Amino acid sequence: MNRLQSLASVVALSLLALSGCAQSTTVENGYDPAQYLNRPFHAFNKGLDTAIIRPVSKVYGAAVPATIKHVVDNEVRFLSLPKTLVNSVLQGNVERTGDTAARILVNATIGGLGALDPATEMNIPEHDEDFGQTLAVWGANQGPYYELPLLGPSSSRDFAGTVGDFILNPLSYVGSGTGSTLLGAGRRAASIVDTRHSFSDAIDQALYGSPDSYVTVRNLYLQRRNNAILNGKVDVDARPDIYEGGEF
After folding, report:
1. Phi and psi for 219 in degrees, rounded to 5?
2. DSSP per-residue codes, the chain
3. Could you read off the pLDDT tens digit of each residue along the chain, which spans 248 residues?
4. CB 3.0–4.6 Å: which of 39, 71, 96, 229 could bond 88 by disulfide?
5. CB under 8 Å to 114, separation ≥6 — which residues?
6. How many whole angstroms separate alpha carbon 25 and alpha carbon 66?
7. Contact, 153 vs 247, CB < 8 A?
């Protein structure tokens, strides 16, 4: 089966499964029938953050020079652009497609393959689109909320979107064998640590400063996803996705 057929199968199965979710899935009613499973997984993820991710991000913040951290952040954002480009096309959003294509061209050339970010200095807007958002634009229901071990907050639609993004992202097919696997793992690890460091205060408040961190993370995630689907402006410091880029 070629890649196009694989993608078509994923999309068809995803839409079929999600179309059966007749319940309203707005943030307000907090559709969360799997909470009995989600809470233990949340406790696991929170423990992982406490024991590993948070300490590593603190060392990263204290020990790594600001210039290196800036380059890492630029590269993490640059490597997300192919995914955003493909999904902008699938959503039929001409403006975001043009913006993202321009950012790729500028930052890949005079930006040194993403090490620098001259596109921002040139006032080229930056967007973030994924296949979960694409499914929403195509009419797929959100479905139940889930918090997955290691992967973090999600929903039926967003989990299907994660699979779709892997298939759609051109970087998924760069290289092969052990080298490619190590490169992918390194990219994900850098994204996790960079995100955790960049939004440390907001994430600490959500995980450790709220009376029920599970409910706080769930509501922030659903609000953030709804805002992203609507292409509205979002205060990422107030509404962080604490596992952004954190697929293992």
Report:
1. -65, -40
2. --HHHHHHHHHHHHHHHHHT--S---TTTT--TTHHHHHHHHHHHHHHIIIIIHHHHHHHHHHS-HHHHHHHHHHHHHHTHHHHHHHHHHTT-HHHHHHHHHHHHHHHHTTTTTTS-HHHHTT-------HHHHHHHTT-----EEEETTTEEEEHHHHHHHHHHHHH-GGGGSS-HHHHHHHHHHHHHHHHHHHHHHTHHHHHHHHHSSS-HHHHHHHHHHHHHHHHHTT----TTTS--TTTT---
3. 444 434 434 443 444 344 334 333 344 445 799 999 999 999 999 999 999 999 999 999 999 999 999 999 999 999 999 999 999 999 999 999 999 999 999 999 999 999 999 999 999 999 999 999 999 999 999 999 999 999 999 999 999 999 999 998 888 877 666 666 777 788 889 999 999 999 999 999 999 999 999 999 999 999 999 999 998 654 444 444 544 544 33
4. 96
5. 74, 75, 77, 78, 79, 107, 108
6. 42
7. no
Residue type, 47: G
Size (the chain), residues: 248
In this structure, are residues 204 and 210 in contact, taking their beta carbons and an 8 Å threshold?
A: no
